[in-house]
Specification:
Length: 212
């Protein structure tokens, strides 16, 4: 008997449709899993960021509490975690020698700053700033404002170290007349720019090759 070539040997349409739907469901499930995974990762990242900000806020509040007395007395300022001290309190004009008032203030600051560094494993950056007036030609003690701001920052750094802060926990930086906090218009505004700032900063991360 001859085979019936008119008979259709192709699979039924419902089977093809079922396979197609199964494939689409699989793709949908994969997309759903990816979306949920992405949302979980995003939520975890946001939570981590919130925790970091809360920790930073707590640290700042702790530092403000530790420095409450000199803040209330107006001997220092605290803006964005930076302790500002007027150059008029620390030094005489065009001088790097600490005044008695400045030395006493730094001695008072050493203990809370030391405690902060030990608790948070950070460093202190001591930054010196001047106004925009050039060094007088008859003042052979300093080459320029860079030199003056550097010497003042070093003097404050040495005083903090003598107050108990470890030498490897603090470093000095000089900015001269750059980065003023007020326009250099007159004696009052220039006195605001003659300052020293003390700021806790994170330690630089070290790669394994950099380990001693």
């Amino acid at each position: 008997m001859m085979p019936n070539h008119s008979q259709d040997d192709s699979p039924p349409v419902w089977a093809i449709f079922g396979d197609l739907m199964a494939g689409m469901v699989g793709v949908f499930v994969m997309l759903l899993i990816w979306t949920l995974s992405f949302q979980v990762d995003l939520a975890a990242s946001l939570q981590t960021e919130v925790e970091k900000r809360e920790q930073e806020q707590t640290r700042r509040e702790q530092l403000e509490y530790a420095l409450a007395a000199p803040l209330a007395e107006g001997r220092i300022t605290l803006v964005d975690g930076r302790i500002g001290i007027s150059g008029n309190i620390l030094f005489a004009l065009n001088s790097k020698e600490l005044s008695n008032e400045g030395a006493t203030l730094l001695s008072d600051l050493s203990a809370p700053l030391k405690s902060w560094l030990n608790d948070h494993d950070q460093l202190l950056m001591v930054s010196g700033f001047t106004d925009d007036l050039a060094i007088h030609e008859d003042n052979y003690q300093f080459d320029d404002n860079w030199d003056l701001s550097a010497q003042r920052a070093l003097e404050v750094t040495r005083k903090l170290v003598s107050g108990g802060i470890q030498a490897n926990q603090v470093f000095a930086a000089a900015f001269g007349e750059h980065h003023p906090i007020a326009p250099n218009l007159d004696q009052t505004t220039r006195s605001k720019n003659r300052r020293v700032e003390i700021a806790p900063v994170p330690r630089a991360s070290r790669t394994p090759k950099e380990q001693p």
